[in-house]
# Entry
Amino acid sequence: MISPLFADTPYEILDIIVKMKFIFLIPILIIYIIKPVENFGFLTGVVKRVMQFPTLEEKLSKVYLEIFFPKVKKSCLFPPIRRDGVEPVLDYDVDILDNIDADSKNENNKKHIIHSDDRVLLSECEHLVEKINFNIGARTVLLLPGYRTIPDNTSIQVLVKAYLKRCDHYVIVLNWINMTGKLPKPFFNAQTIARELGKCFSSLEKKGYNIADNLHIVGFSFGGPMAGIMGHHMVKKPHRITGLDPTHIYFSWFFNNKLKLDPSDAQFVDIIHTDMYYYGVGYPSGHVDFLVNSGHHPQPGCENRRFSLCNHLTSVFVYAESITQNPANPTLLARKCDSWKAFINGMSDRTNETIIMGPDLDASISRHSGVYCLHTNSSFTKEIGKGIEGSFGRKNGRLLSNAPKVSKEVIKTDYEIDTAAKDKMVMDPVK
# Structure
């Protein structure tokens, strides 16, 4: 076994620690034995801990699914979900949604928090069908946040606002903040919640609701492996899972080293890497893996914040822009590459395909697979992506003169709602 002193990266150190599984017994020893002995006496403390351990029903009674309904706006980027015989209603502040700032350092996003229109308990998730008409083919995105994240946090708000700007998605946000206590409880609770989510959507599918084929799960950080666990426990695999710099549920490796996001968890899995080897996993995890600015630190604006969440959060803001980009003139394009080094030196094959990042990528397994590279602007104050230029190799910030040409034809999605179903769609809760 390699000594941690000779490991090249923190990721290797973590990998070494994971292999030394007995070390993970230490927090259990502290939480369930040492602290009870100190505070309550040995027998009294242990019994109290066991007796207070929440049941599954108690856990689920603290977890909510927050629902955001799309609204028809003057600035809808795509054909909105419509209501029959009713004039469009501008319920949201159009200016707020029209000026989504993807700069993580900008505090304006915190001033305009969009709260959910409705919510249901995870323990009563069958009530989702009373809110959303799944049988009309409406697209639904389920956002699984990272550790200790609530729907009001910037990392969730920027995604919610982007999807609402599209007008063509119902948005559901998992709110499990009440179950993210002290370590190691969140690791176990995350697995339980993800399994129950999978069982919940599967039960609705069995009752005749068309959910899986129109469900897109987006998991950031800790939500990445949760999305994988959820997909694994669904009878019919969800249409798509997108992992935003997914991380490991490290403590769970002691019990099951398969608790991670992989291509078997959905019909199509794509991953956006921005902080590999630190907060994010350091290996391909989907049918398509995007390496943004090499996929690891430092990301633009995070040069002096190596061990902060800045690089990790970049995946969220990159994906948020991909949601609202115009498919006819996209800002985030990536080229298939063998490695980042080959990409920046212009060594990729000139025949390699160029694809669009984000919801409008054609989620066809047979059509796309492998690793794709792109680089972005050096500042996120305006647009993050550089369009077709970002799919060329570069050296020292300049395009190479011998960079291979990229086909002008950008592959777009054919993931469209049936025309016949559009007129029947509802925006508001199902009556």
